[in-house]
Specification:
It is a single chain. The chain is an alpha+beta fold. It is built from 5 helices and 15 strands. Strands 3, 4, 5, 7 and 8 form a 5-stranded antiparallel beta sheet that branches. A 5-stranded mixed barrel has the order 6-11-12-14-13. Strands 1-2 form a two-stranded antiparallel ribbon. The model is unreliable at 1-14 and 23-27 (pLDDT under 50).
Amino acid sequence: WGIVRGRFLVMKVWSPALTVYRRIARQKRPYTHAAVPRGEANTLEYRVFLQQKETAKLISPWHDVPLSVNADMKLLRYVNEIPRGNRAKFELATKETLNPIKQDTKNGKLRFYGIDPIFNYGALPQTWEDPDDIQSETGFAGDNDPLDLVEIGSRVLQTGEVTLVKPLGVLCLLDGGETDWKIIAIDYNDPAAPLLNDIDDVEKIMPGKTSAIREWFRSYKTHEGKPLNKFGLDERAMGFNYATDVIKMAHGSWQKLRGSGKSNKYGLA
């Protein structure tokens, strides 16, 4: 074992299993999507659309990108909104046609985080946190957005990049009276990915990472003069099985959303 690319451990010795894993990873790289910027960066009009390369057709990163690669949810597609270290608060425009990524605004001005994100941050396609669903774990409903995901790999992902990730665990943020789940995952092609299968593995391979994520979400709004955020589930980071249950729930809510009149009720596109 040895320390490379920062703070995690990877195998220095040759491993047949690792070789096979990396070969499969190369075959599963999601090369079918491309980010298409429109407008001038750092303006209210700037958008990043998603294009399907084979057809050159613009598609919705929320509705048209399939969520899971396999039925057991061990491999998911993920849409990155905010690159690690970028303070511009990008998000899917859930009320705009084709749901491009835009920078959030407040009082007509572009929003920025007061501290650097310590992870890549984005959303899982074909998921939705239902604001009509009071969740038993928290007593609060969903936040009316796709499910958030933090990606902890070594590479900085770009806005609009679609990649494959391994879900590892989940934190339950309570944000302004809403349940706001945060899935923790790693890029499937990251050198550390073969070593990570559950949230406990994160502490072994990346000591302190989970706590750092929790504290980032706890305090980031204090830079806007707001109080510390709170967490459900006694602040615990739950493991893979719990995370996949949350993902399946959010995917089921999205399926109901698409087959009902709730899109119009909440002004979603």
